[in-house]
Specification:
By secondary structure, the protein is an alpha/beta fold. It folds into two domains: 230 residues, P-loop containing nucleotide triphosphate hydrolases (Rossmann fold), CATH 3.40.50.300; 59 residues, Histone, subunit A (Orthogonal Bundle), CATH 1.10.20. The chain contains 14 helices and six strands. Strands 3-2-4-1-5-6 form a six-stranded parallel beta sheet, sandwiched between helices. Helix 3 packs across helix 4.
Length: 309
């Protein structure tokens, strides 16, 4: 147990996409009379709420949410900024709210708030432009090849299908002349609050059904039109993500709409699998079925009572 000398708790709700995190977070926030911090790096972007399954207007009206639609796809933003902004918010809110809820599927962002991140150089705009041009012209394989040459150790660990991770590691290598893996110390930073992590898991067939149903609901809600409005900016990193890539391919005439939707479902399933692989490595996560709300509430209350009074 943490030696943090207070009873403030950050409850983290993690898990794969479509596992029911948003609904559970709202239920818990109502129960504990508190607010929610999003740890979904795609929901930060205000232009794409449908395709990122951001909380709806009705859900946002029930409970105050932070870091939902807070930036534009045109804004530069990174995990270091997120860490600083969330810690500032928690410092302010926990004066009156002893429990805060953080919810999302972006493991890197959750980890930054819970454990801290290493101090790495800020991106060089000209270098980022150069690497983005390389990515646009020669694709993911060019980034993979470059990183494998600059830092073979990190290349073995990184999600090789995530261009953002590849680009960032390459940037750091080129800016510092050192290996990204050598600069990542992974030292845990003590926070002025306790952290309780809850993970949601479902049997794979049920999660896949939920992904298929949600994709259909998102299309009905106007996802195609939303994607069309941001299509002119398809080169932006914020849009290089599941759903938009497939719909952009449809706009380019490379896929029928039906093929694009099926690809979205397939790639979302793969994304969910990668998320679970990440979260499974965290031994501090306590796993529950999304519908075990009473058990989760009891677990949080029990944790509260176990803290020094």
């Amino acid at each position: 147990m943490s030696t943090t000398p207070n009873n403030k708790i950050l409850v983290v709700i993690a898990g794969p996409t479509a596992s029911g995190k948003t609904d559970l977070a709202i239920t818990l926030a109502k129960h504990f009379n508190t607010e929610i911090i999003s740890a979904d790096s795609r929901q930060f972007y205000r232009e794409i709420p449908i395709g990122t399954a951001a909380p709806t207007a009705d859900q946002l009206a029930i409970i105050p949410h932070h870091f939902v639609g807070n930036i534009s796809i045109h804004d530069a933003y990174n995990v270091s900024q997120y860490e600083k902004e969330v810690l500032t918010l928690l410092n302010k809110k926990m004066d009156t709210l002893p429990v805060m809820i953080m919810v999302g599927g972006s493991g890197l962002y959750i980890n930054a708030v819970c454990n801290g991140i290493d101090e790495l150089p800020n991106p060089d705009p000209s270098l980022r432009t150069e690497l983005n041009d390389l990515f646009q012209k020669k694709g993911l394989s060019a980034l993979q090849k470059l990183l494998s040459e600059l830092d073979p150790e990190y290349f073995q660990q990184v999600d090789k299908n995530n261009p953002k991770r590849l680009l960032r590691a390459i940037e750091v290598c080129k800016q510092t002349g050192k290996k990204y893996s050598a600069l990542r110390q992974n030292k845990t930073v003590q926070r002025p609050f306790h952290i309780l992590k809850i993970g949601l898991e479902l049997p794979r067939p049920i999660l896949n059904q939920r992904i298929h149903l949600r994709t259909k609901q998102m299309m009905t809600a106007g996802w195609l039109d939303e994607a069309r409005t941001v299509y002119p900016f398809r080169h932006l990193n914020a849009l290089n993500t599941v759903g938009y890539k497939e719909l952009f391919a449809h706009f380019d005439g490379k896929l029928t709409l039906e093929e694009a939707v099926e690809k979205i479902k397939t790639n979302t399933r793969r994304y969910a699998k990668r998320q679970m692989t990440w979260f499974r490595k965290d031994q501090s996560i306590h796993w529950f079925h999304p519908k075990a709300v009473a058990d989760i509430m009891a677990f949080i209350h029990q944790y509260q009572q176990s803290l020094p009074q």
